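Data availability (excerpt). The following record was deposited with the supplementary files.
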Amino acid sequence: ADLYLNRGLLLSQNNQHELASEDYRKAWELQPDEWSGLEYSSNLMTVNDTSAALTLLKECRSKFQDNPEFNRKLSELLAELGQFREAIAEYDILLKRDSLNFTAWYEKGILQLRDRDTAAALRAMEMKAEVILKGTKVDGIYTADPVKVPDATRYERISYLQVLQERLQVMDATAISLCMDNKLPILVFNL
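Predicted structure:
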């Protein structure tokens, strides 16, 4: 199992994630421990095998209840799939075990904010709004967070698809997709 795991790690370090998947799978089958579960689930998420990653993470969460990393990874994957309520529930599990876990509180708060974007987009559709107004800390959409990356470039206009492809953190992907599907413009402004 260790040989497969080590080879998987080496392949991953060389961006051979697809090849590494088989080694991680074999390592997990031979020795289903926390370490192989973490590495295998990370690999599945990297190669976008969300169905297998979801199954593995749920199994690991049940099997290794004292390791909060499986709840965190599962929450991350659920959020990527737009399942914010389920993602937040994973943090509730963590916080029941350790109410002083600052990181869990913070990440849960971020998910709740992202969930608001989707709720706002849905509400805008119901109201037949002509535009969504998105107030932020900066004056538009940038290639990166201009607070953290001072030389980030501001977009004057950008397509929904480009926001999704570049994974720009304007709104959550579900909200952006809803707006794109319904041709609802988003106006980003500084609060």
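Summary of structural features: The radius of gyration is 19 Å.
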